[in-house]
Amino acid sequence: MIEKAMCPSTDLEDCRACSKKILGWTVVGNTFLAGLKIAGGVCTNSSGLLADGFQSISCVATSILIMVSLGFSQRKSDERFPYGYTKIEFIAALSAFSILIGIGLFVVLSNLLGILRREFVQPDIMALPVVMISAFLTYMMYRYNFCAGTKLDSPGMVANGCHAGADLFSSGAVIVAIILSQFGPSFAICDKLAAMIVGIIIIRDSLAHWNGNLQIILDQVPGPGFQQNIEQVIAGVNPEYHMSRMKFRRVGKKFWIGLSLRCPMTGTVQQNDVLMSRLRHAIIEAMPEISDIIFFIEAAKE
Amino acid sequence: MMAKKSRDPVKDNKEQAAYVLFYIFILFFLLNTIFGLLSASKCLLVSGAFALFGVFIAVVALLRIGRSHPARPGRLYFNPDKLEFIIILGTSAIITLGTSVLFFSIGHMVFFHTIYPPELSAAWIAMITAALSLGLMVLVKDRAMDLPEIDACEIGFILNACFLLSILTMITVVIARIGGPLLDYACAILAAFFLILHGIRFLSSSFKGLMDASCDKDTIAEVEKLMKKIRSDVALKELRVNEAGHILEIIATFAMTGETSMQDAVMATENIKILFEKKFSRPHELFVGIKEQK
User: Fold this and answer.
1) Residues B279 and B155 in one domain
2) CA-based nearest residue to B265, from A110, A175, A299, A8
3) Which one, of B65, B44, B3, lies nearest residue B192 by Cα?
4) Contact B78 A297 (CB under 8 A)
């Protein structure tokens, strides 16, 4: 989904500074909305609004999680974390999406139970202005988080944006349910149905992002083609070198590779260093998704 | 569900042991949780939560055995140690959260004086759990060296916890009968607190594993000392030691003079690998690189 940027700036430093402010305001905004929705839901008997309120609480928790992880992910690698801190954002995003999937499941199951037990309560029309204010504020949070997330290529900000988007969906469903419920008691089921549909949408959208983040955390390579491409580059630089093993891990969205090479035992360490440097440069140029390579030399099998 | 017989008897034995642990911990969890709820014994409930940790350690052990003895050797397109850490992270989070809820609900009951003394049935279940825990502790201690994939220290800790809580449950049932129902709540709160700390420790270690953090300084120093002892003539330029599940991943780069022939350099690295394999007892994967000494 391509989102229009909320500001024309393309300076990454501006975006980073802005993302910190956005997260801060998202926490404040969601805290306010959680209180408003829960109070509104209790006063107007709207289970949809109440569920929406609890979702806002989870948005506060995930925003704080993302804020902390973003702070850490900027750090350079050190002795304690030699591969850097970038993965922390993906772990935080995975946690955020796990929470969201849990919320989605809770919303679907609790409302399904309510329908089966025929616990229909007609929400008061006074819930409508509460939901509309909430929808407007959530829309702003959704747009700003996505803008920063896409410009900075930050999975944490995107996860936060998804949370706000899910909140927006649920507010929309609640608006429809409240309006329909005013047409009579037989429409009271709409409140629960709307909440269920929202729950399903949340689960579906979150699963795709959850899977993407999980692949990065599991250090998943794109497939056998990845290794084949590296082998082709090696053969192109020096056909006498053959790859025996590959060790890999994700460093953010890029890869760190450890390659065990079998090579003929000719030349000196200095000549080998020069060749490895050429090989490293050739592989990174051919495959820009690789950030760093270490070579391990093994004797060629006779 | 038991392991199908493979052609690898070592793997079959290990899997059998892991499955035995898995089923026993499931039994502990179900017995303690169900009877903890039925008999209002809070100690038994917390013991059930400890047993749940044991279930997931057994699951991780099965994953590690599968990794050490792959049925079909081939390329994996992800790092399986990360899968272990994700499972540990997820389950630790769930168990820690669940225990925190239990901790606060017990506190809530005490604060609002809704006291239910534990019933006699809790003592019988506790007796069974204590006997099984003791037997299992002896078994795990005997076989720990043959099963590096099973985290014997953690299993030992959990079995100790289950055993102690079972003894405490029996004591609290007796004390409750003579008019002291609060002991059950007090012991459960204390045990839940330790379980939460344990859960946080698991969360922290799995989080570091996912972040590819370096090992503790003592392990790195041990590896460095051994490498230098094996080849004191070759300078160790860089050393990275990470925990990849139960296996230590060691990446060592040695610096040699530019004029050294590649044949001598590779022979030196092969020599290091062979001697290190003999002298370093922990399961490990060693990668050795060569760079010109500048």
Assistant:
1) no
2) A299
3) B44
4) no
Are both B51 and B154 inside the same structural domain?
yes
Number of domains in chain B: 2
Q: Which two tokens stand for residue A182?
A: 């005013």
In order of start, what are the domains of chain A with their CATH numbers? 12-217 (1.20.1510.10), 224-299 (3.30.70.1350)
In a domain, B155, yes or no: yes
Task: Give the residue from A197, A183, A283, A184 showing the smallest Cα distance to A241.
Answer: A283
Same domain, B254 and B152: no
Q: pLDDT tens for residues B180-198? A: 888 888 888 888 888 888 8
Q: Is B204 on the interface with A (CB under 8 A)?
A: no
Q: Is A131 exposed, middle or buried (0-12, 13-18, 19+ CB in 10 A)?
A: buried
Residue that finishes a domain, picked among B177, B210, B243: B210
Residues of A in contact with B258 (CB under 8 A): 268-270, 273
Q: How far apart are CA B284 and CA B251, in angstroms?
A: 11
Put simply, the chain A residues between 213 and 272 with a CB less than 8 A from any chain B CB are 214-215, 217-224, 227, 247-249, 258, 260, 263, 265-272
The whole-model pTM stands at: 0.79
Which of B76, B78, B253, B257 is best to mutate for the A interface (most A CBs within 10 A)? B78
pLDDT in tens, A132-172: 888 898 898 888 888 888 888 888 888 888 888 888 887 88
C-alpha dist (Å) from residue B202 to A10, A51, B83, B88, B132: 41, 32, 15, 7, 25
Q: Which residues in chain B have Cβ-Cβ distances shorter than 8 Å to A87?
A: 210-212
B90/A contact by beta carbon, under 8 A: yes
* Model ipTM value: 0.77
The answer to whether A218 and B90 have CB atoms below 8 angstroms apart is: no
Q: Which domain holds residue B73?
A: 9-210
